[in-house]
Write a structure and sequence with these properties.
The protein is α/β, with parallel strands linked by helices. It is built from 12 helices and 6 strands. It is globular, with a radius of gyration of 24 Å. It binds pyridoxal-5'-phosphate.
Length: 283
């Protein structure tokens, strides 16, 4: 428990205006929130029959650009679940900033319940950490070592003063983790603050909508019904599939050579513009 400080004066507190900055966790529901809670339709969630929980999960999944969402009552539980999902074997390792809530304040649940080793990395004052150091910390190349399978970040970062992680840093971190075959978990207790500060949709903050050239090349080569309706077709009404070479996630190579006609170049441009617009909607 945190120590509590009395706020009063000689009048016994009558002349004291309390402005409480201790934590956002002090906040309580507004009257309209209380009314909504009171009036919410409820049901048996085990049978998938709680319409309010279902609506919350569906709406959340859509906002975050994810296949599904799961409602859990606390942030600590959400972090533990993520650790247990991503570190599917006991004895695996997760790297986490030394000032992360998940390391400092969650009762060592990763070790206690999930059997996962947390390896800390020094946090910079802005909530980030050194990505070169991160790349060096991965283990599992030797039978004596645990496999590093997860990296955890916190956004906004509580102990670093509510700092918002830069998108560019997150993208570089995601690249390293992808290359190492590790997953990333974001403790997003205040992720909507980050989205508001950056003025981007929350799905952008959680790195779920990075456009990788392999995704892009796959999408370019696929003809979806929506684009046919939007008129992304050739002169005979056929959909356009564009093949590009994507060697790794950093670039897609598009080479124009002698067999390619001007018409094909125009069709490819039409298709690429359409697909890029699709990605931009999600950014
Ligand atoms: C960054 C962060 N993660 C997780 C939690 C844990 O949330 P809960 O208290 O709902 O378990 C908190 C709580 O303040 C937090 O600040």
């Amino acid at each position: 428990m945190y120590a509590s400080v009395e706020t009063s004066d000689a009048s016994g507190g009558e002349n004291v205006r309390v402005v409480d900055f201790r934590s956002d966790t002090i906040s309580v529901p507004t009257p309209s929130m209380r009314r909504a809670i009171f009036e919410a339709a409820v049901g048996d969630d085990v049978y998938g029959e709680d319409p309010t929980v279902r609506k919350l999960e569906e709406r959340t999944a859509a906002m975050f650009g994810k296949e599904a969402a799961l409602f859990v009552p606390t942030g600590t539980m959400a972090n533990l679940l993520a650790i247990m999902v991503h570190c599917s074997r006991r004895g695996t390792e997760a790297i986490v900033g030394e000032n992360a809530h998940g390391f400092l304040y969650e009762q060592g649940g990763a070790a206690q319940i999930a059997g996962v080793l947390l390896s800390t990395i020094r946090n910079n004052p802005d909530g980030t950490f050194c990505l070169n150091e991160l790349a060096r910390k991965f283990r599992g190349f030797d039978v004596h070592e645990p496999d590093t399978v997860l990296v955890m970040v916190e956004n906004t970062h509580n102990m670093c003063g509510g700092k918002v992680l830069p998108l560019e840093w997150l993208e570089k971190l995601a690249t390293i983790c992808r290359e190492k075959g590790a997953k990333v978990h974001m403790d997003g207790a205040r992720v909507f603050n980050a989205a508001t500060y950056l003025n981007v949709p929350v799905s952008r903050v959680i790195i779920s909508k990075n456009v990788h050239s392999s995704d892009l090349s796959h999408r370019l080569a696929t003809v979806c019904p929506g684009e046919m309706e939007a008129g992304v077709v050739d002169s005979s009404g056929k959909g356009i599939a564009v093949k590009v070479s994507a060697r790794d996630w950093t670039f897609a190579r598009i080479v124009v050579y002698t067999n390619i006609t001007d018409e094909e170049v125009e069709l490819a441009i039409k298709k690429i513009r359409y697909v890029i617009k699709e990605y931009e909607k999600d950014l």
